[in-house]
Design a protein that fits this description.
two-stranded antiparallel ribbon; elongated; 2 strands; mainly alpha
Length: 156
């Protein structure tokens, strides 16, 4: 499975905002500069995160982004789905009903073994991401990394 770069960007920004939780909203340009990203491209992902309720956007000259909920209430799955959507990556085409070896439709009333296995794998992956919060990821940062983030962010 291949995910867009926006997933990485969104996850890093959410963790950074968790570290900066007690500060004023962090401007979009500061987030882009911090990670060396295109502000225009990052803006699309930040907007998606705000629309989904992961981030809160504050407009105006003192505006920016902050987490919309406490970091311990936002899962990494929330961030992923905000950027990528909720669609399952595997879409069964029912090829067992095509070609020379086609099975009749009445023999295909349940998902095939491949479809079932892919659904199980997807659910395991989502369960894993659902079990990790933005706060958990922020806690994995070294104290030096957290201090670096706080030094580099704009001060109110």
């Amino acid at each position: 499975m291949k995910l867009s770069q926006g997933v990485e960007w969104g996850m890093h920004c959410a963790v950074l905002l968790a570290v900066a939780d007690d500060r004023a909203p962090v401007p979009r340009d500061a987030l882009a500069r911090h990670y060396g990203l295109s502000e225009t491209n990052l803006a699309k992902h930040l907007q998606a995160l705000a629309r989904s309720g992961v981030l809160q956007a504050t407009p105006g000259p003192q505006g920016g982004y902050r987490l919309a909920r406490p970091a311990q209430e936002i899962t990494m799955l929330d961030v992923l789905e905000a950027v990528e959507g909720r669609a399952r990556p595997f879409v069964c085409q029912e090829i067992r009903q095509r070609g020379a070896g086609a099975l009749p439709a009445e023999k295909c009333t349940r998902p095939c073994a491949i479809h079932a296995m892919m659904d199980d794998a997807d659910e395991a992956w989502r369960t894993s991401l659902r079990a990790v919060t933005v706060a958990d990821m922020a806690a994995r940062l070294t104290p030096a990394t957290r201090a670096h983030i706080r030094r580099e962010l704009p001060h109110p």
